[in-house]
Amino acid sequence: MALDYPRRLSLAQTPTPLQYLERASERWGCGHRLWVKRDDLTGCTLSGNKVRKLEFITAHALDNGYDTLITCGGVQSNHCRATALAGAQLGLGVHLLLRGEAPAQAEGNLLLDQLAGAQVDFYPARGFSSELPARFAHWQAHYAARGRRALAVPTGGSDGLGVWGYIAACEELREDFRAAQIERAHIVHASGSGGTQAGLGAGVLLHELPATVWGVNVCDDEQYFLDKVAADVADLCRRYPQVGTLAVAPNVLDGYVGAGYAVAGAEIFQLIAELARLEGLVLDPVYTGKAFAGMLAEIRAGRFEGTRDIVFVHTGGIFGLFAQRGGFDH
Questions:
Q1: How confident is the model at residue 1 (pLDDT cuts 50, 70, 90)?
Q2: 35 phi, psi to nearest 5 deg
Q3: Maximum Cα–Cα distance across the chain
Q4: Residues of the domain holding 108
Q5: Burial class (CB in 10 A: 0-12, 13-18, 19+), 241
Q6: Burial class (CB in 10 A: 0-12, 13-18, 19+), 185
Q7: Catalytic positions
Q8: Do 85 and 195 lie in a common domain?
Q9: Which residues lie across from 34 on neighbouring strands?
Q10: Which of 54, 64, 149, 259 lies deepest, with the highest CB count within 10 Å?
Q11: Would you say residue 126 lies in a domain?
């Protein structure tokens, strides 16, 4: 029986291709076949994993009378950039609450936020997360006093609504596996807000995909993501009875955060450059670069022995790369 999805808008260019990395497999695969699900190709300025979630979030907003989206993230947030552009495309106002100081010059994702007409406010990194509920409430009241209705969209669009984006992606992956004759695979991706991991975990069960999902956390720690994925899946099951009760057991590959969120060492920039030369595939230093490095380390350690195919989900992030171009000076 076909899964009963909530309504969604067509914002992403899907299905995205599944690409075999022949030279990367030879260099780093240790006998495994390495594949990449090209979710960096979901659309030009809307590229990346966030637009999959926004297809469902924006449909919900329009269907329920919201005219403004309020969301949050770092100064170079891919989610905030995608939200700003989706809002412009749909005629919705967008207000971004960004963690950190305003830079002297806007570049990367922040430049695109401004070009899309989003209102941007910067807040100190210290206490940012704990103060978010109050800030969301403040700005929702601000818009309500002006006769508008604002939807608070959580970090990364990650909740029981946003996870539908990667439940749908698993339906694509099921067809990808058939076309590529992949009998079973490990799916590896960067995990930053937990929603992609929750969606993939739920989607694997709902679409009976023969795969094990691994999230490489790029911030926080393993326990945070175990709790966050569980919370998002519980929210999904509560809001959408058609999915039933899902026992998602998330797998987290911890230990690859490095010096901190959005801080990458020289080895990550070196890997990004090497893969770009090897396959014409460009990663970013915040999410996919760290996740790809973690995947390669786990391959060397024998984590995926017994399964031939490994699929890396490229969740985008290329615009944030330009804001860290100094990392390539070496």
A1: low
A2: -125, 160
A3: 61
A4: 50-157
A5: exposed
A6: buried
A7: 77
A8: no
A9: 310
A10: 54
A11: yes
